[in-house]
Amino acid sequence: YTQKGDEINIKSGMQTLMACDQENMQIEQDFTKALEGNYKIFTSENKTQFLNSDKKVIMEFTIPTDDSIWKFVDGKKWKLFMLDNMGQDFGDIHIQFNLKEHKVTGNSGCNSFFGNFNAKEDKINLDNLATTAMGCLDDEVNQREQKILSYLTHKDLRFDVAEQVINFYVGDKLVMIYGLQQ
């Protein structure tokens, strides 16, 4: 593409060759076709519109705001399904956020936890985190629980929400993925 001021010219690009069902292939072809052309770009708040020469909106993209992300996350139960690049069924290990009260609750394997959270942009801080005091007889469960709690309370914890997952990072390393429990 080339861009000059608020005008953009998008030319045909390369694509991967994945086999999809006919409906999704049609959507992809329509989207690719719509991308090609000359557009005037109009941006307001968290919305970007691509207008054709007749000033008709051809495409519109909305960037989620912190409010819309947290409204999606709030009150739902998120189940752990990846820890340190190891995906598996982790049983009832989960996390849940209460946006109104800035509270977090969950289960870390053997014990339940609860505390407060604050989030700004991609940084999240879980503080005053406390746990129940159940005795875990399995060393592996104990170690996993300690790892989860250490990640959740890490001073450099970051997050993002993509599709129906919450990704947690320590620095630039993806350490945990929680998926929306249906």
How would you explain this protein's 3D organization?
The protein has 182 residues and is of the alpha+beta class. Helix content is 20%, strand content 46%. It has 3 helices and 14 strands. It has helices at residues 22-35, 66-73, 139-152; strands at 2-4, 7-10, 37-44, 47-51, 57-62, 77-83, 86-87, 94-98, 103-107, 112-120, 123-131, 157-162, 165-170, 173-180. Strands 6, 7, 8, 9, 10, 11, 12, 13 and 14 form a 9-stranded antiparallel sheet that branches. Strand 1 (2-4) and strand 2 form a beta hairpin. The longest helix is centred in the N-terminal third of the chain and has 14 residues, at 22-35. The two termini are 40 Å apart. The mean pLDDT is 89.
Concise account of the structure shown:
This protein has 182 residues and is an alpha+beta fold. The protein has helices at residues 22-35, 66-73, 139-152, and strands at residues 2-4, 7-10, 37-44, 47-51, 57-62, 77-83, 86-87, 94-98, 103-107, 112-120, 123-131, 157-162, 165-170, 173-180.
Number of strands: 14
Radius of gyration: 22 Å
Succession of helices and strands = EEHEEEHEEEEEEHEEE
Name the structural class.
alpha+beta
The helix count comes to 3
Mean pLDDT: 89
The biggest sheet, with number of strands, parallel, antiparallel or mixed sense and barrel status, is: 9 strands, antiparallel
Through-space gap between termini: 40 Å
Globally, the shape reads elongated
Sheet-strand content, in percent, reads: over 45%
- Unreliable sequence segments: none
Helix content: 10-25%
